[in-house]
Predict the 3D structure of the following.
Amino acid sequence: MRKLTWAALTDVGMKRSGNEDAYVIAEEYGLYVVCDGMGGHASGEVASAMTTEEVVSFFRDREAGDLSLPYDTEEGASDPERILSNAIQHANDKVYVSGMKDPKLEGMGTTIVSVLDNGETLVLGHVGDSRIYRFRAGTLEQLTRDHSLLNHKIDMGELRTQEDIKGFKHGNIIVRAIGLKDYVRPEAQTVDRAAGDILLMCSDGLSDLVDDWAIENVLEANQEDLDEAARILVRMANDRGGKDNITVVLVRVDDDPEELAYGAEDFQEESTVPRGLADDDDEDTTDPARAAFDPNDDRDFRDITDADDSRTAPHTPVFMWEDLGEDSDDGGPPATKSTLKIGGDELGALRARRPGAALPPRRQPTPPPQRKTPSIIVDEEEDSDLPSIIIDDSRD
């Protein structure tokens, strides 16, 4: 039997007055999403909330029979990767159009990381610098690569040595985000799954302040209690200053290897495509569900936070943009339920609503005070392989 168990926690942190992070767990689609609305820009909380809602809406529409994939994807992408990439691009369209229609929302944006249960594998999709890690057999590995200015300059060959990289002072500026343009290029990949794997999805409020080795220690000591692991990780980030909102979603693979091995014939009769993704002629009986896991490990966790706060910095409220891909050629079902948590407020635990039904009115956030920081946008020039940089000092 294939099963995923999850735990999630979001926290405003120690410095911000509002929570611009959002996450959604839509178990009926095997979908897990974390978004980090961009601080210092218009309505980051709205952008992250809208993105989580629209990604789920895309899968709900597929379940209702709309199997179209209107957006371009990377060459060679698998069908599940194309589906997840299209869901992210669909959300980008909705956020971008909303920002264009309402001057109060102009310029809003968010990062996204997402995991899709695809039976024997997991599909990951991301835009920005929120991260997905995998803890396997005592080792933590980062599965996503930040869409950061640092990595962009490394790819362009402008930073070649470790000294160059260590001396670069703008590594926390991102070059790709949801909602800033009418086109975004998500990265999607497929990874294998093994019983005992723990996937950590997080905003940079955690990864900027807690070192990978410390995260690894926490997951090693709390493999059987994901709720406790999430609480410890959030507390560690706050102990180190809590300079940003902090969101942690943990997903553990609780597949039964023996049952899968001995029941292979029975399992092959089931669809390995999440419900709502299969073709009309295929019957899908997969229904991933959250399950409790009785802990039998009484080891105590030792707090290993480091008092040295000089090594990391919070996500700077600055946008940069990179569009290195080709121009895009965009050319009454049953109720569903999701556990939707946005900005720290439950909008409906296990709520049922029809596809297309209006969401409850969303509270408009009061932006916290921000220091004046240049807004930088990176865009591709037609006659050059290097991006142009436009600095607009008018934005706070």
About this structure: Confidence is low (pLDDT under 50) at residues 262-396. The chain has one domain: 4-146+176-315+335-370.
